[in-house]
Amino acid sequence: MATVTEWIEGARPRTLPNAVAPVVAGVGATIQLGAFTWWQSLLALLVALALIIGVNFANDYSDGIRGTDTDRVGPLRLVGSGAAAPKLVLTAALTSFGVAGVLGLVLVAVTGRWWLLAMGAACILGAWFYTGGRKPYGYAGLGEVAVFIFFGLAAVLGTVYVQAGRISWEALGAAVAVGCFSMAVLVANNLRDIPTDKVAGKVTLAVRLGDAGTRRFYLTLIAVPYVVTVLLAIGHPWPLIALVTAPLLRTPVRAIISGGTGPGLIPVLKDTGLAMLAWSVLTALGLGLS
Length: 290
Known about the structure:
This protein is mainly α and 290 residues long.
């Protein structure tokens, strides 16, 4: 029986910035549009958190029963390590998805944005089939695309649209930036796992690009948000304050450029996630002040 600490680790708390950051960025764009409602933003945040915890448990379950997580370099995997029975981890995943679905339904019902139900259903299906099903798309190198769509475009623009009933160019820019940050987190994770994924037959984008190509891709992705910052400042100078978050990426960039591998890449995930969260907070502040 897994301990409470192991269950918390299995939920992968280091990935939570991927859920918080897009909602925060979306809140900034919503404030700029004059449509911010605190409780709707809170519900959107809870939906995003439930979704990412659900996808983490679903990933743990699906990879675990396939044997992909048998030899892990990164944090604990409940099924792969034998700490928890597969059915319990599956139940945790489905429960998280259920919570996300119920909260999302409440949000849609009170705002009347009913077509967002389709987007919510797509998010849940995308979360499951990332590593679940007979042909998981995460095993075909499409995980980064899904992260960009669901934890970039959908999360940011959904937060804005459900409150404002429309989106703005600033919201779209923030969505692209956060999506690239989220992709960078996954790219760093998959860079670390290239050796074990090859053995397990998991053909991630990192496996396809190879070690050197994946490192270049990571560096490109983390540059995009700062290009977006400059573009946002063309009409509104306040978003430039987000540039102060760039030094937070110094350690991850050093690890990537120096050829860090295995455990040496684990901090890259955390630091990239924190930089994404900090960028989103300051960008939201900048957009709100605009």
